[in-house]
Amino acid sequence: DDAHSIWEKLSASERREFTEMLEKGDVNGLLPQYTPWWHFTVKEPKIQELDAKVNTDFMKTCPEVWKEIPKFSINNPSDSIKFGVMNLLYGYAYTVRYLHGDYKNSSPEFVNTVELLVGKEGTLGGRVFELADTAVETAASRVNFNPEIAISQEFSRSVKQDVYKIIKGPCYTHQNYYVLAALSDLRTQYLNSISQIKQTTKDKNKQPPLSNPSPKISLFCEKSPDLDPKILKLHVRKIEFYLSWCVAYHETEFHLL
Known about the structure:
The protein is mainly alpha-helical. It contains ten helices and no strands.
């Protein structure tokens, strides 16, 4: 579309509103409404036959669950694990909504946003939480230290409800499905990022450095997220640990939330 012709068609008030949104960084208001996949739920009858078929349409709308989740082998795991999962889910849900669900070709950007919220200062960085509220609020508060990913306080608060929706799942019969789908998707984004970073590094090594780079190139060249593949690999292992734990303990540990 011709941006100039579109601008000419806007009224004075529309131009002013558009300009104010850009100045405030509130581009979210310029984008169409996005409904996350975990908002899809299935109503089940209170009384049903044991062999009754469950509507599984929700599986079509959410990311695919990793098919090779290893068996959880730790006896009597810590009660704090579930709070680590909640901290991680906040980072995931915030990032999905921040990118309006459009991150198929933006894995490094996706992972970088998650790292800002729950990386070094969160569960992926080794922090242990003892309360659900603390786990979620800690991730939400990281937005204040990273204004480049901030949208609004209302947005940050609403993501807290998303965490509980993911944990609750699409229906009683498949309570843990959305957590498994979210963590599986997160794992995929991390693995994709590692591959892309390695490929980018390889390509850069093949190209001779510019002796006198153009100021315009330096000004408009987008800075890539500063991600360390070695650290990302460790975080992948942590995500896989949580996946294993959720298969074994989701129903017993999250039933009171």
